[in-house]
Amino acid sequence: MPHRSKRLALIRAGIDTYRQPVVYMRADCDLCRSEGFSSLARVEITLGARSIVATLNVVTEGAWLPPGAAALSEAAWEALSPEPGAMASFSHPEPPVSADAIRAKVYGRRLDQAAFRDIVRDIVGRRLSELELAAFVAACAGDRLDAEETVALTRAMVETGRRLEWGEGMVLDKHCVGGLPGNRTTPIVVAIVAASGRRIPKTSSRAITSPAGTADTMETMAPVALAAAAMRKVVEAEGGCVVWGGGLDLAPADDLLIRVERPLDFDSEGQMVASILSKKAAAGSTHVLIDMPVGPTAKVRSSAAAHMLEARLLTTAEALGLNARVRLSDGSGPVGRGIGPALEAHDVLAVLRRAPHAPQDLRERALDIAGALLDMAAEAEGGPAAQGRETAQALLDSGAAEAKFMAICAAQGGFSEPGRAAHRRVERAPHAGAVAQIDNRRIARIAKLAGAPGRKNAGVLLHASLGQRVDKGDPLYEIHAETPGELEWAAEYAGARAHPFRIEAEA
């Protein structure tokens, strides 16, 4: 009987599986049969000194996949970086080191630092299957991580990625817990703080389930996918930046956990804290302000939940050596007028340019956050506090913040004006009254169905705000889309489901 090789040629499948490495093999592949590989099996792929563990998908109609070859998803291809015609070896992987620790957590046992370190290393090494990742996320959901475990998980997440170093002195940073569409304060805050002469190298995320992340919005105005060396040059020149953190390998386990957490919609205080603070510690921050909106459709929905989360954040930050402060804010409705990358960018620029039509709620919230950060800096420097907001407002009103923002954009690769969508539809008030509620989740859903964040110009433009009185037929919001089909899709959802605006009719 002829010897069957355990090596196959690698080709690029051109399939985006996000961060999950996937390998595609033919159903009639000799290697699959000899090794007993089946669909969703974990397969170790070795190419020279590089090795990954990927999930197997079996191709039953293999016309596109030639015999003797295996196709790699984008994540797997990038991890192995094969040369054309490269031959890789395939085998069954060893069981992950952390399997026993995950099982113990499922059964309610406390884990120590070593156990969390093993789990996070296996996550980053892609040695855990989707089922094993989901089991770990579920085992930590709710209040199943205590304070010590939260610190241990956070430390393990920092240890398994790159950590930026900025030398002596303060490094300021901010984070918003989230849940408010349009709450794009970061570019404004970075511009104000950098204009004050402080350092604020801001790494931001792209959207996962929201209509826009800060990186998506910033990318409509300047490049954000900077390598660490390029980011450092921007900060050295201008004192601040707004770049995408996904390409910097900061606490990479966080992104992999989020991929599982979001579809499950699990609310884990400990994992949220680890997610926030691991990224801040890895980014080299020393002083962090955390904005926590509280509202019925925000991520944090009650005062009691906010204070519990605040305590866990501050305890964990102290253990990591971070100087952190939490600011509770109004989370009752969206911020600004635009929801979606380009629409939010227009709001940011209107505030920085001091335009008469600039959304005042976005301006005031950005000033509050920038002022609080400047107060933290003044206290650390031994100077007078409680003047931060006045300083922030002066820097904004004088045009210094706008000039600094434009300089940062130029340093990151050049400024460009955000675009506008070609297709729009206005949704109007069904009756007269006062706007009593704008559902954050529903209005965000409409923006996403219109194409945001993938379509940069898509989203929702608000025409009415909380507390505003409207007459029947007045515009409430406007759907923006880049294609007619996406406009219809979003409008159909808006009309068929509960309206995102609740208008209390006049007596």
From TrEMBL:
A GO CC annotation given for this chain: cytosol
Higher taxonomy: Bacteria, Pseudomonadati, Pseudomonadota, Alphaproteobacteria, Rhodobacterales
Similarity-based family: Belongs to the thymidine/pyrimidine-nucleoside phosphorylase family. Type 2 subfamily.
Regions that span the bilayer: none
Pfam families reported in the protein's UniProt record: Glycos_trans_3N, Glycos_transf_3, PYNP_C
Domain Pyrimidine nucleoside phosphorylase C-terminal, residue spans: 434-498
Protein name per Swiss-Prot or TrEMBL: Putative thymidine phosphorylase
NCBIfam families in UniProt: ARCH_P_rylase, PRK04350.1
EC code: 2.4.2.4
Keywords: Glycosyltransferase, Transferase
GO biological process, one term: pyrimidine nucleobase metabolic process
Domain of life, source organism: Bacteria
Top-level EC class: transferase
